[in-house]
Design goal:
The C terminus is likely disordered. This protein is 60% helix and 12% strand. The chain contains ten helices and five strands. The radius of gyration is 41 Å and the shape is rod-shaped. By secondary structure, it is mainly alpha-helical.
Length: 288
């Protein structure tokens, strides 16, 4: 417990309240939801084949499939309604590329968000020590934003293809017994795709989070800092040039050439104007 307390005291957890770290925590959580709802999926469907000869019927044909959705490897047996002979069939399609790509992005985004959050909390000074840390963070954020957009779009298309390939009505068309009108083929249970639909939603939400975090990471880089320094420098240059110019207020002071009191006092040295200015008030006081 002492080690945990020391570690907690060393960290600056108030940065989690800032947008940069707060969005990283959300990215970490949403990445978990994304790969958990997709990578942990397993589902199935059930079909019923009722032959004209009831003894040859099979009313419970279960077909199970799961991530990564290599459906061509999913095999099942179905009656032919021609004696006891059964045929071995398989689903159609391979949608593992888009599914695995989506889960891979989610896993790496989870790891990077966790590592970035730890750096923000415990190594904030080293992170801001030079411009390398924010620049790497900015580039990685842009790359992950693009990957989330591509991966989510690809998986959304792959999921729609999975739904078509596992549609019970489409699977019934693969059975030779269902091509005969004397036999009745019916879907008993359809696969539940709610978790897969949720994974697509979390994929696009992750894209929005990462794209929105680009601005906050950019503010930590030297590019944003250098852009903010130019206006104050320009104002300082204008201010210094104004002070050095002819409109400096100091030039109107006692040392300036435009100071009337200094120049007018010299006139008083030449004669009676100075004595008139001094004696006038005095003589008037004596008359009173």
């Amino acid at each position: 417990m002492e080690a945990v307390d020391q570690l907690a005291s060393a960290g600056t957890f108030r940065v989690v309240k800032e947008p940069l770290a707060f969005l990283r925590v959300l990215e970490w959580l949403f990445a978990i939801f994304a790969f958990a709802t997709c990578g942990g999926y397993s589902g199935g469907l059930r079909l019923s084949v009722d032959c004209a000869n009831k003894s040859e019927s099979d009313l419970n044909i279960d077909i199970a499939f799961a991530y990564p959705f290599r459906l061509y490897q999913v095999n099942f047996d179905a009656p032919t309604c021609e004696g006891k002979r059964r045929e071995k069939l398989s689903l159609i399609g391979d949608f593992s590329s888009s599914a695995e790509f989506f889960v891979t992005i989610a896993v790496f985004a989870f790891l990077y968000s966790l590592a970035a959050t730890v750096v923000y909390i415990f190594f904030q000074n080293k992170y801001r020590e030079n411009n390398r840390g924010p620049l790497i963070d900015f580039i990685v954020t842009v790359v992950f934003s693009f990957l989330w957009l591509v991966g989510s779009s690809a998986w959304a298309k792959g999921l729609s293809d999975v739904k078509i390939a596992t549609d019970p009505d489409e699977v019934l068309l693969l059975m030779s017994a269902c091509k005969q009108q004397s036999n009745k083929c019916l879907p008993v249970r359809s696969p539940v795709m709610s978790s897969l639909n949720t994974s697509v939603v979390f994929g696009f939400l992750n894209f929005i989070l990462w794209a929105g975090n680009i601005w906050f990471v950019f503010k930590e880089t030297g590019w944003h800092s250098s852009g903010q320094r130019h206006p104050p420098d320009t104002m300082e240059k204008q201010s210094s040039s104004y002070n050095q110019g002819g409109y400096n207020q100091d030039s109107y002071g006692p040392a300036g050439g435009y100071n009337q009191p200094g120049s007018y006092s010299q006139v008083g040295e030449y004669g009676q104007s100075q004595s008139y200015g001094q004696s006038g008030p005095t003589s008037f006081a004596n008359q009173i």
